Amino acid sequence: MDTSGQFDIEDDSSDEDYEPSFCFTERPDAAIDIEEEEEVDETDTGDESDGPEYDQGPGVERLTIDSMDSLLSDTPFLVYKDCLLRLVQMNIPTSCQQCKSSVELMSDVVGSALYFSWVCSNGHLAKKWCSQPLLNRRLHSGDLMLSAASLLSGNNFQKISDFAKVMKLPIVNISTYHRIQRTYLVPSIDQFWINHQTSTLEDYIGKDVVVLGDGRMDSPGHCAQYCSYTFMEMESKTILCIITLDKRMTENKSTNLEKTCFEKGLKFLKDAGVNVVEVVTDAHVQIGALMNFLFQKKISMPTFVIPLTYGMEPRTLGKRLSRFPKRRVKRTNLC
Fold this sequence. Notes:
The protein is an alpha/beta fold and 335 residues long. The protein folds into 2 domains: 74-192, no CATH class; 204-328, Nucleotidyltransferase, domain 5, CATH 3.30.420. It has helices at residues 68-73, 81-89, 141-152, 157-167, 174-201, 257-271, 285-296, 314-321, 323-334, and strands at 103-110, 113-120, 125-130, 208-217, 226-233, 239-246, 275-280, 303-305. Strands 6-5-4-7-8 form a 5-stranded mixed beta sheet. The chain has a 3-stranded antiparallel beta sheet with strand order 1-2-3. Helix 3 (141-152) packs across helix 5. The two termini are 31 Å apart. The model is unreliable at 1-13, 308-312 and 327-335 (pLDDT under 50). Residues 1-60 are annotated as: Disordered.
């Protein structure tokens, strides 16, 4: 940081007109070494036809330009390999064993699964096949895995639904998706996080720990509905605690979300046996007021360090730094 310029002692200019007398420059040795990526030859125009001739042989359908309409009108399905092998090995009867009448093939779609049923004219079921294994409570494996993949990959149902609609791929509806998420996915994720957090905190029980904390709202301004506050151990960069609150838990005041999450997070770490000796946060007004309150009440608390806000404009940072020499000069004159 170059601070060779002189500070203006009597600077009454506004923030818009103020020009700081120093500039920030990055040291050459602080630059991150980035390995050069290998050049990729994009001139290769090879396609799948250059590989083994999988498309050759009887029974393999190959479409041409004139028959593309059949591809667009057909319907893809999510099929498991084991189920497909059972279909190939299945012995399909040509007549019903009960009434000896002919058997017809019928198909049905349930969620993302395809059912084949061989039924005679009298309604007798000869054979039945499903493209996916069934789980407990008649839940299809594909429906569960599709819902889990959508949630764990950070997507939402609307995006997956639009994707499936373009491909004409049958999937579950939104009510089934939320039911699967509520019944199976969310409890499993919660239990996995609790087990992981418990095993992580065991390494810090009874130890002096310096934590970094910051909150994130779901939307900017005073209309936020949710806040997630994260505490991270400084040395190992390990996430120790994540507290998420709804503003309905703070009397519908979104301005109290971050402070409440901060208090709950510190209490959680204390109850878990972690000795928090120092907390580093951003310059939050309510957290600063909480510090003053605890200090006045002489309540034991960890040391707080509130650094300057990251991303502060240089002109604002310059005006703040320029005040330090003034105060130092005044103290010298008084002595």
